[in-house]
Amino acid sequence: MGTSERYRKARVCILVGIFGNLFLGIFKLFAGLIGNSFAVVADSVHSISDMLTSIVVWIGLKVGKKPPDKYHPYGHGDAEPIAGLIVSIVLCLIALEFVRSSIHKILTGEIQTPGTIALVAVIVSVLVKYWMAGFVNRTGKKLNSPALIADAAHHRSDFYTSLVVIVGVLGAMFGFRILDPIAGLIVALWIVKIGFDVGRRNIRSLMGEIPSEYMLKNISSIAMSVEGVKDVHNVRVHYVGPNASVSLHLNIEGRKRLSEVHDIASEVEEKIKKQIEPVRSVIVHCEPD
Fold first, then answer.
1. Rounded to whole angstroms, how far apart are CA atoms 233 and 220?
2. Tens of pLDDT along 218-260?
3. What domains lie within the chain, and their CATH numbers?
4. Is the pTM here over 0.70, yes or no?
5. Helix, strand, coil % (nearest 5) of the chain?
6. Which residues pair with 9 in a beta bridge?
7. Order of strands, edge to edge, in the sheet holding 243-252?
């Protein structure tokens, strides 16, 4: 898939996230304030924060699609995990503030009974978020985009936390008013967990964590399928955002001319790039038998 096509599909996901969260955030904020539900207000801020972080992800994708240049020979792909890391930090900061507010309400008893509009808002949120999470996650995995997968995690967290909010609002409407700030506290703690998980995943990407054993074996298998290759070793993969750079050592069978060795190395390079989607560059070191 070309860079332009990849960016186009990613942009659709980002726009869905931005406008979907804008609608839900405003709707739930209005419903939470009018309907006297702290949990719904907390959930609305979660959606608004998702909208803001979707914008950050979009910026990361836009920078990441730039081609390699003199100062960035491996491209700008690391902009995506950097954007994902910013997302996680924003989520954690907002969530910790709502943890504080929820605990304050539980301890002081400053709780009102929620109205019907608050319940309607979270039901709408559950339905919309279920669709958004699936759509963005499928596209993120197809494009191998850590930023989009991180964004999908936020949509999924909104879906689950909205279910918790429904329980809290219903319980408060039936006389158990403390359930509303308790639901708000659960929402906030869940956002902290999501932020931590997303941050850890993107830090691993930036630190160059090794890929799966399956991918390494697949690279070796492809190289061994080329005529003239006797052995493959020292296979290394380094990710720059969603794109991977591969280096490997080959033992070449028999005594061959330099031009023949070059042809074997070129065939290995082309086969790996063609058969493994994330790979954008391959460095082959050839050694005599």
1. 8
2. 888 999 998 888 888 888 887 776 677 888 899 888 788 888 8
3. 3-206 (1.20.1510.10), 213-288 (3.30.70.1350)
4. no
5. 70, 10, 20
6. none
7. 229-240, 243-252, 279-288
